[in-house]
Amino acid sequence: MIRERLTDALKASMKEKNERSVSTLRLILAALKDRDIAARTKGNREEVSDDEILGLLQSMIKQRRESIHLFEKGGRMELAQQEAEEIAVIEGFLPEQMSGDEMAAVISGIIGEAEAESLKDMGKVMTALKDQFPGQMDFAKASAMVKERLS
Q1: pLDDT tens, residue by residue, 2-34
Q2: CATH 1.10.10 spans which residues of the chain?
Q3: Of 32, 36, 88, 132, which one's alpha carbon is 20 to 30 angstroms from that of 7?
Q4: CA Rg, the chain, in Å?
Q5: What whole-number distance in Å separates Cα of residue 145 and Cα of residue 69?
Q6: What is the pLDDT of residue 41?
Q7: Which helix (H) or strand (E) holds 131?
């Protein structure tokens, strides 16, 4: 489903001559094709799932945020702006992100379900969060919240 939305958005962006959107969508689709090829070499005949696509989109956003930080540090504001525009395009394909309060409630519930008591259980909690809420939260922030609760 997400794959079709990406393809349709690329076509629309090409018609609108929106260069930033076209280049960003092409990058996403190329990364998806790479993942499909990697999956086939491992014996999986199907395309990557929507959950994996959401993970890919989140990692692309994370990379761009890191780039923005470095570009701003280096005084390259035009490149930072370009990365921010790409983030805006990518975020259009992610489900609505949870607020901090919603994340806190979900994390508390998962910690209870997993019977997590210490930092040793953090992996269990993070795995459950990623499985149940793909693309719906910033897992870096969630990781910090889980670590704080289990410390």
Answers
A1: 899 999 999 999 999 999 999 999 999 999 999
A2: 100-150
A3: 132
A4: 18
A5: 22
A6: 85
A7: helix 122-132
> 127-131 — which CB contacts under 8 Å span 24+ positions?
130/55
Helices (H) and strands (E) in the chain, counts: 7, 0
Question: DSSP 3-state assignment of 134?
Answer: coil
Low-confidence ranges of the chain (pLDDT < 50): none
User: Residue 29 burial by CB count (10 A; 0-12/13-18/19+): exposed, middle or buried?
Assistant: middle
- In CATH terms, the fold of domain 100-150 is Arc Repressor Mutant, subunit A (1.10.10)
As annotated, the residues of the chain forming the CATH 1.10.1510.10 domain(s) are: 2-91
Which residue type occupies 41? T
Q: Is 94 in contact with 54 (CB distance < 8 Å)?
A: yes
The pLDDT value recorded for residue 40 is: 85
pLDDT at 114: 83
pLDDT of residue 78: 95
Report d(CA 148, CA 125) in Å as an integer.
13
**Looking at residue 75, what is its pLDDT?**
94
